Amino acid sequence: MHPLPEGIITILTAFAPLFSDRVWQHAQVLLLGAILTPGKRTVSSVLCVMGLSKAKRFANYHRVLNRAVWRTRQGSHILLGLLLRAFCPTGWVVLGVDETIERRSGKKIAQIGCYRDGARSTKESRGALFWLEVGLYDAACQSALVS
Q1: What is the pLDDT of residue 74?
Q2: How big is the CA angle at 33 (ends 28 and 39), to the nearest 5 degrees?
Q3: Contact present, 58 and 52 (Cβ < 8 Å)
Q4: Which residue in 6, 38, 46, 112 could disulfide with 33, CB within 3.0 to 4.6 Å?
């Protein structure tokens, strides 16, 4: 593993309990590579930047994202705690919530639902994905910090 600045190590180690030891080693490489990779951040391009394009166990890095079991709810709790400590250590916190509908079509799209767009002139409904975005605002300075 490449040497990292102390600040990045502190943030990354907060997420270590989400993974098993073996998966955590691969996840660290992918996280560091995603920071360093220009353009599209596919697993293959991340591994090329990290010098692992010829690695024997190349497929194991792909499995971090599609097969490895990790706890996303616990991860979101850790992330929120880190954001609150970094940006709003003493003041009030305001969370802005936005609902977004993204139109999609196809038979193999997971979690697709049938939604009606209120802005459209017809009463027709479309297949779409429903996204919920949350923005963190610092009440003291009245500006958006994260979206």
Answers
A1: 92
A2: 150
A3: yes
A4: 46
> 9-22 pLDDT, tens per residue?
888 889 989 888 88
- Phi/psi of residue 12, nearest 5 degrees: -65, -40
Q: How many residues does the chain have?
A: 147
Partners of residue 73 on adjacent β-strands: none
Q: Is 145 exposed, middle or buried (0-12, 13-18, 19+ CB in 10 A)?
A: middle
State pLDDT tens for residues 51-75. Answer: 888 888 888 888 888 887 778 889 8
Distance CA 59, CA 64 (A): 9
Q: Which of 69, 62, 9, 70 shows the shortest CA–CA distance to 35?
A: 9
Give residue for tokens 């990292």: 4
DSSP string, 46-69: HHHHTT-TT-TTHHHHHHHHHT--
Question: Could you give the residue ranges of the DSSP H alpha helices within 67-120?
Answer: 72-87
- Max distance between CA atoms of the chain, in angstroms, equals 57
Residue 59 and residue 39: Cα distance in Å, rounded? 21
Look up residue 61 and give its two tokens.
Answer: 């890095």
* Contact by Cβ (8 Å): 34, 61: no
Q: Where are the alpha helices (DSSP H) in 2-142?
A: 6-14, 21-36, 43-49, 58-66, 72-87
